Amino acid sequence: MYTIGMYCIWPDHDYIEKFIQAGGNNLGIVMCNFSLSDDIIHDHYGHYFEVVQMLEKYHKDPRIKITLIPTLNELFRDRPEDQCFHDGNKYLRRTPCPTSEDWIKYRLNPIITLCHNYNVDSVMFDVEHYNARTNKDIITLWDGKWKPEHKCHCPRCKKMTKKEQWEIHHKLFKKYLSKIPLKESGQLAYFNMWNFDKYIGKKWLWTEETYPVKHKPSKWFYRNTHRSHWGRKFFSKVLYGEDIHINAGIWAERFTANDYIKYIEYIGKKSIYDGIWLYYHARLSKYTRFKRDHQEEKYKGKEYYGLIDDPNAEGSNPNFFLNLKDSINKIKDYRKSWKFKLRKLLWL
Hints:
The protein has one domain: TIM Barrel. The chain has helices spanning about 15-20, 35-40, 50-60, 100-120, 160-175, 220-240, 255-270, 320-335, 340-345; strands at about 5-10, 25-30, 65-70, 85, 90-95, 120-125, 185-190, 200-205, 245-250, 275-280. Helix 7 links the parallel strand 9 (about 245-250) and strand 10 (about 275-280). The strands form two sheets. The protein has an eight-stranded parallel beta barrel, surrounded by four helices. A two-stranded antiparallel sheet has the order 4-5. It is α/β, with parallel strands linked by helices.
């Protein structure tokens, strides 16, 4: 089934229902907090109580699949030293040691419990290094494209090679993730092909590289991104034996409502992608923490923060969801055609 997902940040059930009625079939439930006590420390988004509410409401809805999107890195608690990465000089209390089974249990057990209680369909781990620029105890552990870039020097790891450390990490991670009867798993953000060995079932990347970075990007951006994904998909298979399916993220604030529809349809017809997911800060939720007039100076007149179907908001369209439904139907019809099958065969 072709995935049409929504990344549910500050979830708004009215907009989620509009999305489902337009043809959406997957809800990505963002999970930054792993307990109610975390909600007290981190009051921004991805609250634990919201995750539970979303699962309670939607896990039996036959129209959609549920994807849990937990943050893999530690956001706001120092961990015990024996769970932490040692950089050769000191322990980094917010960065996990690759070979620490206790850290993996700490991170995965709340996810395992939720998945069992609510029959979650898939888990995509958000491996982005939040707070790495401001907190020296966080390093970019998962960002190497071809191989891991960091070696731990803790007493448990110091005699191991980098490769041996990460082989242990993948084995332990898979051991605990396999306690969930998942048919699909993977990660969000980075296409670091060496990291997919630890996932189970059908493996997915929810990519951010299709957002795009620039507003109204050139044809070169489109072509270069697609070719890059074909190349990395090929080398993932050849070098690591991984068949990685790519779900393309599309950022709502970076388009007018009408241009957003056009870009969704454009990406949806590309044979490299097995799905799309809608990312937003404010346009698909009445409960955003962003101000409606939020504009970074360099993006003045190029980003839109009004609700996407608000008839009075700049760059919006009251018929957005009707147009989205029409575009989703066009995408589905096109992907059944001989032309699409030929393009997929030829990697176009």
